Fold:
Amino acid sequence: MKIGRIVLRQIRMPLVHFFETSFGRTTERDIILVEVQAEGISGWGEVTAGEDPFYNEEWTESAWLILRDYVAPRLLDQAIASAADVGPLSEHIRGHLMARGGLEAAVWDLEARLEGVPLWRKIGGGARREIPCGVSIGIQNSVAQLLDTVERELAAGYQRIKIKIKPGWDVEVVRQVRERFPSIQLMADANSAYTLADAAHLRCLDDFSLMMIEQPLGHDDIIDHAQLQSQLRTPLCLDESIRAAHHVEQAARLRACGIINIKLGRVGGFREARRVHDCAQAAGIPVWCGGMLESGIGRAHNIALATLPNFVLPGDVSASCRYWQRDIIDPAVEVTPRGTIEIRDAPGFGYDLDCDYIRHLTVREEILP
Structure:
């Protein structure tokens, strides 16, 4: 392939309901879409960075600049044998994995379209024809509102419930959810809101038969997670701490977790995501696919990723309507009454684009070169 043109688009999409974590509350998303073109065909990717540098060091504005000034120029007019060659072109750039991963994912989609095969097959997936789905429920205005939301999502068929926690919204909230729903698959996500000094408090969560506690400690920490895991019965899940396969090796060696969340953007795209997946599988650590409030493009990429064999736990890949009144793909992603998403066999990521709506949502656009 020889990429002749790259188009960057920033779209703004209002959420149907605010989403709150320990980082703060989000009411709308500014998302960068990346379109790469070769041989008259386009492939599409999505940069999953947030609007602020809170989840990691990236945010929408930084991703735009990194893509435009550093990543895209290293790919334009380069002859590459496959999408797997895209990552090494920018690996000397430190960090900025979401920006780099958005472009890399677009090339994987392009290559799959050029070959007329679905993206899931191109990346080596296909272990399942349906992926199991869970939901991530943000911090609500009240526990009553949270309980109502959980009930609504269970009625929609979702197989697993994740609730966000933070100091002051944790043990008692989880207790009330578990009392109301004694047998559901339940997990708590802290987004690095605690320190090792909170170990005794976090041990209280052992009483509620949680599937896992996700990323309770520092975003860049593995050692303290290992110490905390030794004090808890509940498995820890690492999210922000895992950016590459060698982090999985370190976590496994230190016994820092029992589960790993793989987010496509966080690890820089499909090439590294497959390595993280394979390394976790070799270590006997199950994985699941996390979400970053993606539009339909990023959601479709997550569906493809979740067909790899070690994605054995329900992920955060849920229906479009949970987030958007109208998505930018057609059809929108839907969840079956069984709490699954069925895999599509169309070339690339498997869905058509609603180009008119994308144009309507676009707040800036730049064509390279």
Notes: The first strand starts at residue 5 and ends at 21. Residues 5-116+354-368 form a domain with the Enolase-like; domain 1 fold (CATH 3.30.390.10).
